[in-house]
């Protein structure tokens, strides 16, 4: 990565890597942790690649010191991790606090700060406590109040040291894959209905947590709170086709706009989204009320409930119109009336869906600045996967990071986007949801074949560390 111009990044730029509790911690039934929906999902068999589970994963619960060595070896300024809700609160409520869970996260936070690494903590990264799923999970209106209570507990317990908070990671993925397609936990297949209800209650939960922080914790703790939204960059499959152009706008509305519009723009869902869903409901004779819920005037508004924009970007798509092909059934895709496809000229990184399009990130960053807000943007996830034989000298991934960081630098220096940080996904090879351990995103390889779970830095990790070192050395204050 020697050709990268590190001076394009502001001197206080956050150089990070990211992880998530279920994907790395293991210790699924240790020291009072309660089960999560992913424990249930994995143990049901047949849902995850070769029935892999996160029961042990990287065993970060017991091997935290090894993770910390990796963080230090990279020279990270920031580390994004998530809290296992059910490790802290085994039944999901503050009625039962697990002191060993509190002690674990206190240690992680204190160790990071002692090493001059700033923690960014995500409260919810896909792993809802099973006890709350049994009460209806994200389909239940009560979940927003329970989440607010959990968030308050975390702010009170850790907020004296944690100044960067993410309430929810990728609500789009949790809603669509977990409640429409059923391919992620909790495995619900309820096309065209639960997807919107779950998304709505996640937005309500985020809103309540942000307002609680703003009113009760910000005055003393002076931290910042947001939610991490995932989005592809999209363009029409046929730029000269008006239908593909319209489909592209719908695709944006139903993915990024679904959650960004209420928080950053209008306080409500995109108009095109509501129009499509309600029109199709009428056409199909759906008489159970609006499938896309309305925000209550009795509750605080989601508008303005983010102190920065947190973006997870992995890939891009070309979009084609599907509106004329809509079948006579309820479904998210048919409401959207658009399909994203891979341009055959794009290389694929490991897993089939991940086309490598670094300049898509630059375009998306500019789009967010122009469309939603001028708030600081943190790229909270971005990465390149590997499958098959392990390649410690991962030249393709090293090139990917070089190309991507160049595009981020251009977004900052040429497009005027206020990008404050970049978090590579992921610090470690880990449990990649329904792909299990067959897909590797780490800057460090983890040898899952041995009990020691040895961490070995990839070439991409070494080169990322070199970029960070170069930037930090160039921006250090000169000694007198």
Structure characterization notes:
Helices cover 40% and strands 14% of the residues. It is of the alpha/beta class and 480 residues long. Strand 12 (444-446) and strand 13 (455-457) form a beta hairpin. It is globular, with a radius of gyration of 21 Å.
The rounded distance between the terminal residues' Cα atoms is 31 Å
Structural class: alpha/beta
Overall morphology: globular
- The number of E-state strands comes to 13
What is the H/E order? EHHHEHHEHHEHHEEHHEEHEHEHEEEH
Q: Could you list the spans in which at least 5 consecutive residues all have pLDDT below 50?
A: none
- What is the helix tally? 15
Describe the strand arrangement of the main beta sheet, using strand numbers: 1-2-3-4-5-7-10-11
Largest sheet: 8 strands, parallel, barrel
Q: On the 0-100 scale, what is the average pLDDT?
A: 96
- Rg value: 21 Å
**Strand residue percentage:** 5-15%
**Which percent range fits the helix content?**
25-40%
């Amino acid at each position: 990565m020697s050709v990268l111009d590190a001076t394009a990044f502001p001197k206080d730029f956050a150089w990070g890597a990211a992880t998530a509790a279920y994907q790395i911690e293991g210790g699924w039934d240790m020291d009072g942790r309660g089960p999560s929906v992913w424990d249930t999902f994995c143990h049901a068999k047949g849902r995850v690649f070769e029935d892999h589970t996160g029961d042990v994963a990287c065993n970060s619960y017991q091997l935290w010191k090894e993770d910390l060595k990796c963080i230090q070896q990279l020279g990270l300024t920031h580390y994004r991790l998530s809290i296992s809700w059910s490790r802290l609160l085994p039944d999901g409520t503050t009625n039962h606090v697990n002191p060993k869970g509190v002690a674990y996260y206190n240690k992680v936070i204190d160790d990071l700060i002692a090493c001059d690494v700033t923690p960014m903590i995500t409260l919810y990264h896909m792993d809802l406590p099973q006890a709350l799923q049994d009460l209806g999970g994200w389909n239940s209106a009560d979940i927003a109040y329970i989440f607010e209570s959990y968030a308050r507990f975390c702010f009170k317990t850790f907020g004296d040291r944690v100044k960067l908070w993410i309430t929810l990671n990728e609500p789009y993925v949790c809603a669509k894959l977990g409640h429409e397609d059923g391919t992620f936990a909790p495995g619900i297949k309820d096309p065209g209905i639960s997807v919107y209800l779950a998304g709505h209650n996640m937005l309500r939960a985020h809103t309540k947590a942000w307002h609680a922080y703003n009113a009760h914790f910000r005055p003393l703790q002076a931290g910042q709170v947001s939610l991490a939204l995932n989005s592809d960059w999209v363009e029409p499959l046929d730029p000269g086709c008006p239908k593909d152009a319209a489909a592209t706008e719908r695709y944006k509305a139903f993915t990024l706009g679904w959650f960004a519009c209420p928080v950053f723009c209008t306080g409500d869902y995109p108009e095109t989204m509501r129009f499509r869903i309600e029109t199709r409901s009428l056409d199909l004779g759906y008489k159970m009320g609006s499938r896309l819920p309305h925000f209550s005037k009795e509750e605080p508004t989601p508008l303005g409930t983010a102190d920065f924009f947190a973006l997870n970007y992995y890939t891009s798509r070309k979009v084609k119109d599907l509106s004329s092909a809509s079948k006579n059934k309820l479904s998210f895709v048919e409401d959207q009336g658009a399909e994203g496809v891979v341009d055959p000229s794009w290389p694929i990184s490991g897993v089939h869906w991940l086309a490598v399009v670094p300049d898509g990130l630059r375009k998306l960053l500019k789009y967010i600045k122009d469309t939603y807000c001028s708030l600081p943007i943190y790229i909270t996830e971005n990465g390149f996967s590997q499958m098959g034989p392990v390649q410690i000298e991962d030249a393709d991934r090293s090139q990917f990071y070089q190309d991507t960081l160049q595009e981020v630098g251009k977004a900052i220096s040429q497009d005027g986007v206020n990008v404050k940080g970049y978090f590579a996904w992921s610090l470690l090879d880990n449990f990649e949801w329904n792909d299990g351990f067959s897909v590797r995103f780490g800057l460090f390889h983890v040898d899952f074949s041995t009990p020691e779970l040895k961490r070995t830095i990839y070439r991409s990790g070494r080169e990322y560390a070199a970029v960070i070192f170069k930037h930090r050395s160039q921006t250090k204050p000169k000694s007198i």
